[in-house]
């Protein structure tokens, strides 16, 4: 996932590199390794995304995750293709994709949900349709609001 930046600007714009996309998707750890393998995979993604200039916000527990990624249109499309073709065991489902003028995230933000009272307040009372964090039971608007609430301190510090 590399875009060559040595091309003249008009050639780079041909593929939409100047358009920033925001992609939100949900996933489930259908692997049998209790989230350890998922945590390792997400750390690998963090390193790769930082290298290519993609920003991200991720909420995860042992079973499920919500991720929003932001970056140039061609890169986001490459990531989506790779996610679907190489990581099908994560059972990814697209929640929302939109063009944005300005990125919401600075770097790679991550929140690991635990059974703490604070995390339960986020998931159970405000956003989840079930007894615990399961983004597959959430509407797209709930998913978007959930990410904003979880990372509101990081977003307000960016302003």
Automatic annotation (TrEMBL):
InterPro entries: Acylphosphatase-like_dom_sf, BLUF_domain. Residues 20-111 form the BLUF domain. Gene3D superfamilies: 3.30.70.100. One of its GO terms (molecular function) is blue light photoreceptor activity. This is BLUF domain-containing protein.
């Amino acid at each position: 996932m590399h875009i060559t930046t040595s091309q003249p600007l008009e050639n780079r714009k041909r593929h939409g590199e100047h358009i920033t996309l925001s992609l939100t998707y949900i996933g489930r750890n259908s692997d049998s390794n209790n989230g350890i393998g998922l945590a390792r995979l997400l750390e690998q993604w963090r390193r790769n995304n930082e290298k290519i200039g993609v920003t991200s916000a991720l909420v995860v527990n042992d079973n499920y995750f919500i991720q929003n990624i932001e970056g140039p249109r061609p890169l986001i499309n490459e990531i989506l293709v790779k996610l679907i073709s190489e990581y099908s065991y994560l059972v990814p489902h697209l929640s929302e994709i939109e063009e944005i003028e300005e990125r919401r995230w600075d770097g790679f933000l991550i929140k690991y949900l635990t059974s703490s009272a604070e995390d339960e307040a986020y998931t159970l009372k405000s956003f989840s349709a079930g007894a615990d964090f399961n983004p597959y039971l959430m509407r797209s608007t709930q998913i978007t609001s959930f990410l904003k609430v979880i990372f509101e301190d990081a977003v307000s510090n960016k302003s």
